[in-house]
Amino acid sequence: MNNSLFSRVLSTIQYHQFIAGLFGGIISSIILHPFDLIKIRFQVTETKSTNHHESLPYRPYYKNFLDAFRSIYREHGLYGLYEGVTPNVIGNGISWGLYLFIYNTIIVLNNNQNQIKNLTFQSRIIYSTLAGLLTTILTNPIWVIKTRMCLQYSKSKSVVSYQNMFDAFRKIYQLEGIKAFYKDLIPGLFGIFHGTIQFSSYEQMKNFYMNLFHITYCPTAIIFIFSGLSKFIAVITTYPSQLIRTRLQDQHQHYNNATDVIKKTYQQDGINGFFKGIRPALYRVIPASCITFVVYEFVLRTII
After folding, report:
1. Mind giving me the DSSP string for 126-185?
2. Cα separation of 159 and 171, whole Å?
3. Which residue segment(s) compose the domain that 143 sits in?
4. For residue 93, what is the domain's CATH number?
5. pLDDT for 231-240, tens place per residue?
6. What is the dihedral angle through the alpha carbons of 298, 302, 303, 304, rounded to the nearest 10 degrees?
7. Is the residue at 4 inside a domain?
8. What DSSP string describes 74-130?
9. pLDDT tens per residue, range 162-199
């Protein structure tokens, strides 16, 4: 009986989902990291005329996306556009792998085959939110390291510099303690709804299409459309929480908490301040979402 129960539990664990998600996250991150780097730098840049900007003379001011791209490339070459790529690739790969692994394992544990085929939108929201919560808690330290490494400036002498991901982990822990890896966790938890909106919308659209045309999987072109559309909806609705999270992770500025970030951001830039960097974010995350889900679906079909 115990062996039978153990075998059943093992059979419900969705290892293939982790592998497929891992590959999707890694490939999209490698291709589109420069867009992520520029998005992060825009998120922490205050209005040029503010005192905060004047107190950080080493922090470059970019007029727009192309100006940022040209400036970084001119100063550091291709290497500069891939600052912080290691934690980004590791973080995205593990996050997507864990998220899809947890999400699909919860579904299999709580539903029979017929229920899985006809999963309601409400159920998808609940399961994806639980998966997002666990994934965020487990991977938050990686995102702190990624942000810190993306915000290194050559002219900065007053803050700690990081040689690589492991050096960043060591220095952050030694100088700031374990709490530094979870300083932004509250706005990060709000970010769970980003994943919930994106994945629930994607799954619902995909399921509707497959049921409509009585097919077992979607064509690649349809995956591109649904993944891009679901990501656009998620970004537009949750972007301010991402900006707050990034500013809390910034080693060049000090904020007491998320409320302090909201107050100062609004004072400096008004409502528009909460959407700084959204254009390069969309340039990156929509193609990234398309690549991630196309690779994920392909790998999933290959290994099942």
Report:
1. HHHHHHHHHHHHHHHHHHHHHHHHHT--TT--SS---SSHHHHHHHHHHHH-GGGGGTTH
2. 11
3. 16-303
4. 1.50.40.10
5. 999 999 889 8
6. 90
7. no
8. HHHHHHHHTTTHHHHHHHHHHHHHHHHHHHHHHHHHH--HHHHHT--HHHHHHHHHH
9. 888 999 999 999 999 999 898 778 777 777 888 899 99
Q: Mind giving me the DSSP string for 182-224?
A: GTTHHHHHHTHHHHHHHHHHHHHHHHHHHHHHT-SS--HHHHH
Q: Which two tokens stand for residue 122?
A: 């409400």
Tokens, residue 303 = 């290994």
Domain count, the chain: 1
Residue 11 lies in a domain: no
d(CA 161, CA 166): 12
**Structural domain contains residue 8:** no
- Tell whether 10 is covered by a domain: no
Instruction: Quickly tell me which residue has 């973080």 as its tokens.
Output: 91
- CB contact at 8 A, 103 and 131: yes
